[in-house]
Amino acid sequence: MITATGVTGSAPAAGVGIAVPAYLVLAPASVLDTAPARPGPAAASETAGPDTGDQGAPQPLFTEPPPPAPTPTATPRISRPPIDIGSGNTVGRVRVGYMPKGLVRDEWAVNHGDRYSTSWSYPDDSGGGYRIQIFVFEGLSAATTDKHWQTYVNNGTAKKVSLGAGRIGHITNQWVGEDGGKGTPTAFVKVGEERVVEVLMSPDYAKDLGSERAIDRELTRVAAGLTADD
How far apart, in Å, are the Cα atoms of 68 and each of 24, 28, 30, 60, 65? Predict the structure, then answer.
């Protein structure tokens, strides 16, 4: 899954999908006192203002301030047309240049416009499990995901890896401890302007590879092979 970036993810039947970002929850409105008024003249403290005689209606003790101006909605700098998730080694606008031997693309995909995903597994995998899953984030969702990964970088839990040609990426274990597991090894890389990609390795596949070195090697190779024309 993908957390807090507003964006989490997982493959169907494998426990990974893109979650809807959390929204602000408004507190209930104040309850008005609707008790009937007491008979008789009103107390001085209950009147709207001093007696003005024939000079007009009493003035209110206060007036409500005008509502605040609406906050401008953020927009991405780059406008991209709607995306087709693609097939084969193309995931939307991203090309996948490397995938571990024996893995084939699964027949599912999710496409929310500015974020989309699909996965690879062994042909004989049962139960819908994945081995490698790729999430692409563009525009505003890319900014949110980038900020999420900066948390890993700043607290020292993300390792920097060289992807060649001056490119760098980061690797960390996300969701450590969930379901009693060791987490999901994940690589993060920027691919073009306002686009970031996460490469997730299923905990089962990581267990098959055995060592941390082998896990990092395969994640780095997949991340290094990701390219785009724009």
Answer: 18, 20, 19, 22, 9
